[in-house]
Amino acid sequence: MLFNADKSKGIISRPHAGAYRANVVHDVSFSICSNVIENVESWPHLGHIITYNGSDKLDIMSRRGNFIGQVNNAICWFNRLDCYTKTRLLKSYGFSFYGCEFCGT
Fold first, then answer.
1. Domain identity same for 20 and 65
2. Which residue range(s) make up the domain with 83?
3. What is the pLDDT of residue 18?
4. φ, ψ for residue 37 (rounded to 5)?
5. In a 10 Å sphere around its CB, with 0-12 CB exposed, 13-18 middle and 19+ buried, how is residue 57 labelled?
6. What is the pLDDT of residue 57?
């Protein structure tokens, strides 16, 4: 199995602001096949943004931006359709609630 160190990233989880910090490791490096893995504070993985502190803020902002883009595309491309039809199109193709009961008909 071959690994590409350029496509691999490391995220080191750090304690919350109020947590005990006596044993926090600052300079950790990992390598694969003699190639050092870059440490980052956030990185997209499987469509979600994972951060070092476990915060969902970046992921939520990214999802929000994607949703706003989808709504704007629907409004732009289907501007001549009535609101009911645009809403049905958004529910069918714009929402990422796969199998979720929230997005029922």
1. no
2. 56-97
3. 55
4. -85, 130
5. exposed
6. 92
